[in-house]
Design a protein that fits this description.
Rossmann fold, alpha/beta, single chain, globular, 2 domains, 5 strands, 21% strand, 136 residues, two-stranded parallel sheet, three-stranded parallel beta sheet
Length: 136
């Protein structure tokens, strides 16, 4: 992963890592960060800790922080709405493109395998082929 990211960034590395997995991706993601980069932990789907040698942060002037939206809501309930509006605007403009894999419902076993293997990047949507409306 480190080599692919460095290659894609002209050797610099990424400025920001947003990690919702932790554990096994922590070290490689940290190694792929640029000097002065920021690592934001937003979850721990792997349920295993990421190990850190703090000297790495020191010599590369990097920062690791945790973020959970509940604390932002407590401090300022309007802030999450503003952030959501900004994110929607970025998606609408094409500046941010969500990664979505779509599979038919019949492939639910494959979808489950992808989710368990952690080989999937982004979101997975199962489609039913239904295109009508539901009335209550």
């Amino acid at each position: 992963m480190k080599d692919a990211i460095r290659s894609a960034t002209g050797g610099k590395g990424c400025d920001v890592v947003i990690d919702g997995v932790g554990g096994p991706v922590f070290g490689p993601s940290l190694a792929a960060m640029a000097v002065g980069g920021r690592y934001v932990v937003v979850g721990s789907a792997s349920q295993s800790p990421g190990m850190l040698d703090s000297r790495h942060l020191l010599v590369r002037n990097q920062t690791v922080v945790g973020f959970i939206v509940a604390h932002v809501v407590d401090a300022d309930p309007a802030e999450p709405q503003a952030a959501l509006t900004l994110m929607c605007d970025l998606v609408r403009s094409g500046d941010v493109r969500p990664v979505v894999t779509t599979l038919p419902l019949e492939d639910v076993v494959e979808a489950h395998r992808l989710m368990e293997s952690r080989d999937l990047v982004g979101k997975l949507v199962l489609t039913t082929g239904f295109s009508g409306t539901v009335e209550s």
